[in-house]
């Protein structure tokens, strides 16, 4: 009899804690939707600045693109990726970034955009890591479910996970793998 009461007590605690976790996730979604509308809100206090001013600007635009994919806004992702490619049109150091940004800009298919974003992110991570960070930080984040279970990385200005590969479907799926900061 005592075991039966203990079992129900544990079951009740489990249900309550799952509901609290679920409510926190819903609360985060609301915050994310509000904070991703204005890029300056996201970057405030953590602007990544590298010695290459062009890359600093490119990173800010990349973060806008990431946020549009988090919101599953394929039209705005296409617009921002076109802007990103335009920022780099005369820069031969970032040809692969231009290529992937152009790929994203040419489609409104969110699944294709997210696939191209994975390749773009790999190139952005290499570029930021190869640069001297003057201030701020970037977080290398990873989702093991992206690209049909292959996994994919992306950069973020905040430590909190906002998954660009799944948006609201799996907003918090992933973890921080590395922090890029001034050495």
Automatic annotation (TrEMBL):
Please give the Pfam families that the UniProt record associates with this protein.
DUF3347
Which ranges carry the DUF3347 domain?
58-135
Give the domain of life: Bacteria
Task: Give the InterPro entries listed for this entry.
Answer: DUF3347 (IPR021782)
Under which name does UniProt file this protein?
A: DUF3347 domain-containing protein
